Amino acid sequence: MDIGLIQTHIVFVSLFSEGFQISLKRIYWFVLFFSFVWYIVGVWRSADRIERRDRIWSKVAKVFIATLSLYLLGLNFAWPPYQRLQDQREYLAGDPGAGTRSVRVSEDGTTIEINGWLGRGQETVFRDILSKTSGVRTVLLNSRGGRTAIALDIEEQIRANGINTSVRGQCISSCALIFMGGREREFYRTASLGFTGLLDDDNRELISKAYLSGGFPASFVEHLRQRPAYPTWFPTYRELSDAGVVTRFVK
């Protein structure tokens, strides 16, 4: 399958309303499926026609078509469940290949720093720190993202305790979910805040609801819903300010 064609399709579809997107996607995949079947049947019939003249090439063509069909069937029906299983294993193991990560409290007990990948167990460490430290006022974020469920768990804890959030380095993808939980959301102008588009995200509705609950305007959330996952969207300072995503900029 041509990956470039699929990416072009995703970007093109994102220009239309949600209902129209669904219709376009159905038409798109139907055309792809019909074209593939047409190709398979055509090659098979051609192999039948030349079998009397060239038996070897006829057999080779049929074996190729059969192998290709089995491969594509496996790619579409067996590979996704396998990927989900592998992803679950990685999650349960703490995503060991995702790099370093840490959750720690400052010496004065007023700031919790979250660094690196957002993986299993960090929400528990965060909860333990909150239960043992009464003076936490700010969560300082520096993360390229991670597990959505972990980010939403930490975001809920931040919101429930009326804690501020701050970004001085990078805060990308699911890290932005944590950032939105802050009572006050501080952003340094040397930092970067990136959002992943939700067009084809399995958690699209859950994340959209979370953003809306966080006070993000519907127009901002809808923009995310219409964007593909990549490239990551880095809103301008003006866009962050107008949408109320950031409540305080620091030079």
Written description of the protein model:
- The protein is of the alpha/beta class and 251 residues long.
- The protein folds into two domains: 3-92, no CATH class; 96-250, 2-enoyl-CoA Hydratase, Chain A, domain 1.
- Helices cover 54% and strands 14% of the residues.
- The chain is built from nine helices and seven strands.
- The protein has helices at residues 3-13, 18-50, 55-92, 122-132, 148-160, 175-179, 204-213, 218-225, 237-242, and strands at residues 101-105, 111-116, 138-143, 164-172, 185-188, 192-194, 248-250.
- Strands 1, 2, 3, 4, 5, 6 and 7 form a seven-stranded mixed β-sheet that branches.
- Helix 4 links the parallel strand 2 (111-116) and strand 3 (138-143).
- Helix 7 (204-213) packs antiparallel against helix 8 (218-225).
- It is elongated.
- The model is unreliable at 1-7 (pLDDT under 50).
